[in-house]
Design a protein that fits this description.
CATH superfamily of the largest domain: Tetratricopeptide repeat domain
CATH class of the largest domain: Mainly Alpha
Shape: elongated
Strand order of the largest sheet: 1-2
CATH topology of the largest domain: Serine Threonine Protein Phosphatase 5, Tetratricopeptide repeat
Radius of gyration: 23 Å
Structural class: mainly alpha
């Protein structure tokens, strides 16, 4: 069991003040927690703080920390460059559902750095990131559909994903969308615009 820091926490909920220490929470069992049954919010806060304190004690990393560590190994900043370890960290962050990590995994498979080059795998990771709202992944997935890399070539879907990324302020996506639209039929552009409104074509 993790040993908590003796730092009192003050909660003011429903006009009452509760002074709770992490130490008391760490020793708590279901029976003591039952005293909070009248306040679901307090119970949720206590449970979250207990879990968070144990995680910090055991040195568990967040997705952002895995990404930063992966970036250091990728660039060789302060450590020997190691693409295998970079991908390992990106993959751990992706397993935690981080949209930026999805995009980074796509980049690795797209370029063949740290993993064998695989267009299909890259497109799959871009799709995960795009559906999670990452603008870079949206743009990259648009490129995959435009050029048929890892997915069947489809100008309508390419335009739709470029349009979604452009709505997030991605300038390259805006330029690619406009250029692609000039080569498409008007009906195809309308269809692509309708798809982009779904945020998940």
């Amino acid at each position: 069991m993790c040993r908590a820091l003796p730092i009192p926490l003050l909660f003011r909920i429903q006009g009452l003040s509760f002074r709770i220490t992490i130490r008391r929470m760490a020793k708590a069992t279901l029976t003591p927690f039952s005293k909070f049954s009248g306040s679901p919010l307090l119970l949720a806060l206590a449970t979250t703080l207990l879990a968070g304190g144990c995680a910090a004690f055991h040195g568990e990393k967040t997705a952002a920390q895995y990404i930063r560590e992966g970036n250091r190994y990728y660039s060789g900043e302060w450590v020997a460059r190691d693409l295998d370890r970079a991908v390992e960290n990106y993959r751990k962050a992706a397993a935690m559902g981080d949209p930026w990590a999805y995009f980074l995994m796509g980049q690795c498979y797209d370029s063949g750095l740290g993993v064998p080059k695989n267009d299909r795998e890259a497109a799959d990771w871009y799709a995960k990131g795009a559906k999670a709202g990452n603008a870079e992944a949206e743009y990259s997935l648009g490129q995959a559909y435009e050029f048929g890399k890892g997915v069947p070539k489809n100008d309508t879907l390419a335009y739709a994903w470029f349009n979604i990324a452009a709505a997030s302020g991605h300038e390259k996506a805006r330029s690619r969308r406009d250029s692609l639209g000039m080569r498409m039929r008007e009906s195809e552009v309308r269809r692509a615009q309708q798809l982009s409104l779904q945020k998940n074509p």
